[in-house]
Amino acid sequence: MSFMAFITIVAAVGITYCEGLSPRVVCTESEKLALLNFKLDIIDRSNRLSSWSENGGDCCKWLGVHCNNLTGHVYKLDLGPPSTRPPVYASDAEFGVYWRSMLRGKINPSLLSLNHLVHLDLSHNNFGGTLIPGFLGSMESLTHLDLSGANFGGAIPHQLGNLSKLQHLDLGHNSNRLFEARNLEWLSGFSSLEYLDLSGVDLSKATDWLQVTNELPCLKELHLSTCFLDNDPPSIMVNYTSLLVLDLSNNNLSPSVPAWIFSLDDSLVSIDLSGNAFEGVIPSSFQNISTLKSLDLSTNYFNSSLPDWLFSFKHLEFLSLRGNLLQGKIPDSIGNLSSIRNLDLSANLLEGTLPISLENLFTLRELDLSNNNLHQEIPEILEVLFRCCADELESLKVEYNNLSGHLTDQLGHFKSLSYISLSHNSISGFIPISIGNLSSLQYLDVSFNHLDGNLPQNLENPMNLEYVDIGYNLMEGVVSEGFFSNIKRLRVFKAAQNKLKFDPKSNWIPPFQCQTIELGYWFLGPKFPTWIQFQKDLSALDISSAGISDVVPSWFWNFTSKMVSLNISHNQLEGEIEFLTVHKLADLRSNRFSGPLPRILPDVATLFFSNNSFSGSLSSFLCDYRLGEPKLFLLQLETNLLSGEIPDCWQQWQGIRVLNMGNNNLTGKIPDSLGYLGFMFLDLRNNKLSGELPSTLANNNDLFMLDIGENQFTGNIPKWIGKSLPNLMILSLRSNTFNGYIPDELCELTSLQILDLGVNNLSGEIPKCFKNLTAMATIQNGADNVIDYFVYGEFIRNELLVMKGRVREYSTILSLVTTMDLSNNNFTGKIPRELTNLEGLQSLNLSVNSLRGNIPDHIGSLKMLESLDVSRNHLSGSIPESLSNLNFLSHLNLSYNHLRGRIPSSTQLQSFDEFSYIGNQLCGPPINENCSMKGGTQPNIVNGSHGNEGSEGWVEKYMIYVSVAVGFLVGFWGVIAPLLISKTWASAYYAKVEAIGAKLSSLRS
């Protein structure tokens, strides 16, 4: 081509562009055919590739296809979905759009025909764990390859090493994690690579990762998050000549930050070392990297105070120290971060108040100080932030501190705020009406404070609020419809545990579509709120304890088919339920529902049906289930009208771990199949069950609570309870007809905190080996208690315990209770002194047995004891002086024994009334018997102690003889002798006796 011809062509092209017209080029037929073949193996549920068709004309105009304007060749294929994640509070429809937008299927080799392709992006699709095709390594013209987040699986094909022109390679964050890479040698030929992301690839055996990546001369960004890197690889000279961004987050690096990082001081602008195991002091060597704009050291174990040098970075825009053990006050030097935009010091041990120098952070956009121990008034914090960034601050998180004071109208002046979280503090007062001025606000959480008063009646300006949580405060009053009129984008509304009332007009239609509504403890009744039926995206609803007394409308049970969580408990709702279509969790407790138990969906995990009037047998609910494999974890049926035998068809309910069927009318034996489920909690209390306990229950090694009290079980206490249930914390066999001895194997239950064997026919002596019940010998603090399972506090019925002479319910503090009840049996022998080793015991009831001997001298060692009942036994001797040392004792019953002598003096023992001591031979306060009348001595003391068993028996016999003699003398000389001495007295006495006899005769007739 001549020079003039070339100039002519260039001029023509230039004129075309100047006129705003596109060159008349179309894609080649071969490349169009390659794209159509590629589409054949793609599953496109959202029809994103609808423009890709034989009749679709120029393929350069197809979605995701980019062509060279001069040649028409396809050079870029961008097939990532429109959004890499769904909206935060996406509706069902939006979720559906998101999931359908992901391409599926497999990658067709027809891509090899795109000889001019330099950019291939298939990220954030879903290829179902298929292998990354090795043929991609033959597309040697590629400079950009992005397969991140596309759910590929298997090993990385080493053929990718042939792509020597690559500048950008992203294989990270595939949810179907890639197999381990034993080496990264295949990367060594990437002389032009600037961006590398292998996040999620197991590099624990790739000891060459540092050496290989260090030799990539153009590398600017290195992302190796979650790659199972641990200690430093072999020592080499590190010199990343171009590196700007280093991400080694979420690995196992410890205990010190690798020293080679600090040699990169000439280039780095971003370092992410979060989620490792670094400890000690934050290395001061970081300050040598003066170019840093982003530093993330979160979720490690740094435990020093905040050093001043850390705030000397003039260019730092992002700093996160979240989730360490940093302590002390926030230093004034924090005001030196003149470029900071995002500051995160959350989840540490910081205390005190915010320094005034914070007002110098004029560029601050996001501040997170949550989960610390800051003590300050919230108006002071708002004042400091107002002076620095009232117009710029977008996010403020200070939840879980010790903040107090009232929210002021100044909050409404932060025009750019989109996120506010002040929850779990001690903030009081009203929610200011000025909050309606925050037109950008999307997230508001002021839950778990002391806010009172009413909600603003009207929000004057439209708001973009999507999430509102005002739950667990002290608000009261009437909520108007106007409050909701300007928050039409509301998706989550949590306001439970307030005393608010909401009674809209019957034709009110909410202007919002919520996914979550929590209005527990509001007053919404007495009619069932009909406005709920307009919430088409509702997945979680709580209207518990809302004063609703009504028949549940039929539309509601059809409406629940989308619900994941439903709580309508503690109302007075009525009706029968044929089919409960809720997924995951349904709480219908404490209502008036009747009829047979409803059918449920197979994916339900938690069911609360207790305190209703459900009736009939369990057979149809359990044995006739045909909807699929049930996922049920918790089933609470307590306090209903269920009857009949427990059916023997539990095989398909293998997921149940918490079962409560107490307080019903169930009869018969416990079926063997029930024992194979692997329970954590099993409660069958107060039924009419009988027979012996099936040995299959020994399979429940994880059992924490077994309560079969108030039934008709017989036989001996099985030895396997102690051998096979090592984690038992609660064992109640109360009010049955168990007989025989307590097996020594029960002493192996070292986690046992509650033992109730009362009201049975047990006999023999109390085992001395009870001293081995370690949990009862330990003072409970709840902090390190394995009964964290009592977060199921509402999953299991509140445990009934006989303490302080009464039947009491314990729920939230059950993990802190330690009690032993052996009352109303036939135990003999002495109270073992070994019981005094159980220093953590709070209640001990040994009443109504045949125990003899003395109360152990060291009873005062039970320093946590709140209740002691040893009444109606044959105990003798005196009350031990050590009993007066029990400072927490609030219930004492020693009545109807053979105790004698002076009641020891102490504020505690004299605070009980005389009925605690009645039926003994005791003297001194609080009873009226004066010890001086009895000589003021305490009998049965031998050399300062109670002596041995032989001497004790002799003294007892001796005292019986003395008592008989004294009784004779008192009776004779106090009554008969005066009659013999005085005839006047004798006549009066006999006349009185005759009068009483005549009166009794008349009553009898």
Output the radius of gyration. Answer: 40 Å
Query: Strand pairing plus helix content: what structural class?
Result: alpha/beta
Q: Work out the helix count.
A: 10
CATH architecture of the domain at 657-947: Alpha-Beta Horseshoe
Q: What's the average pLDDT?
A: 87
- Roughly what fraction of the amino acids lie in strands? 15-25%
CATH superfamily of the domain at 657-947: Ribonuclease Inhibitor
Helix content: 10-25%
Shape: globular
Report the sheet with the most strands, covering strand number, pairing sense and barrel closure: 33 strands, mixed
Poorly predicted ranges: 1-22, 783-799, 807-813, 935-1005
CATH first level of the domain at 657-947: which class?
Alpha Beta
The CATH topology of the domain at 657-947: Leucine-rich repeat, LRR (right-handed beta-alpha superhelix)
Span of the ends, CA to CA = 148 Å
Notes on the structure:
The protein is an alpha/beta fold. Among the domains are: 316-375, Leucine-rich repeat, LRR (right-handed beta-alpha superhelix) (Alpha-Beta Horseshoe); 657-947, Alpha-Beta Horseshoe (Leucine-rich repeat, LRR (right-handed beta-alpha superhelix)); 962-995, no CATH class. It has ten helices and 63 strands. The strands form nine sheets. The protein has a 33-stranded mixed beta sheet, with no helix packed on it. Helix 4 (209-214) links the parallel strand 8 and strand 9 (221-223). The protein is globular and about 115 Å long. The protein starts with a helix and ends with a helix.
